Amino acid sequence: MNIKTLIKKIESEAKPDRFGDAAIMIGRNEASENYASLSRSTRGEIEEIRDNLSRLIPDDFEFHVWIEKSSIDLIMMYYDGMESGTNLPISIDLEGDYRRDLLDVNWDEQRKYCIPIANHMDALVEATESLPGDIPSTAAAQVLHHEALVNFKETAQNNSCKYGVIAYNNNEHKYEMLFQDRRKHMLGYMCDFLTFRWPIIAILDEGELMSVQDTEKLKFEVVGGLGKVSKALALGKLGTNMNMI
Fold it and tell me: Is the model's pTM score more than 0.70?
């Protein structure tokens, strides 16, 4: 298999994801939404890579392969059943003889490195439980981003959208406006936005714009269902606790 040729095939076939990026991601048991846009033959080549990695990387480690911008990258993580984990401090070149390289990895040494870091993060999250937390206000976001709110309403009406959410990406200073056919998919994106602490400006539910009060209620319901680390991040607790150390 020629990896460079595979990357070119992927870039020519992959449809952009929700951020307008044509990146493809695969994990041990998951794949990015736009993975299905690839041809059967291309997916077959990717599945060969996935099978090799699943066989060579112990199952208490997770991995993600990212294919984007003419490159392919392997990221490996260790969780050990905990809420938090850490990336492995090793680099495996998938364009090289990655199978031999993975066979040479001392996985016990990797566990010894990762477990104390992951345990520290768990302890850090536990220390935040008594701290106050908050979620960026939708009422304030609608005042600050009024034009974006109007655009969201018009887009939803003009396209007869059923579910949607708009948030302000304060990392890249741009709006993330997404529409979905299923409520669970919208809620999935809300999980990401809330974890990133991007202010949610508005939510479309069953074709209707939710009131600010109902939006705040739904936000807290979604945050309540997050894992411990994501919940601490969403509530701004983890950052607060880190600043205290």
Answer: no
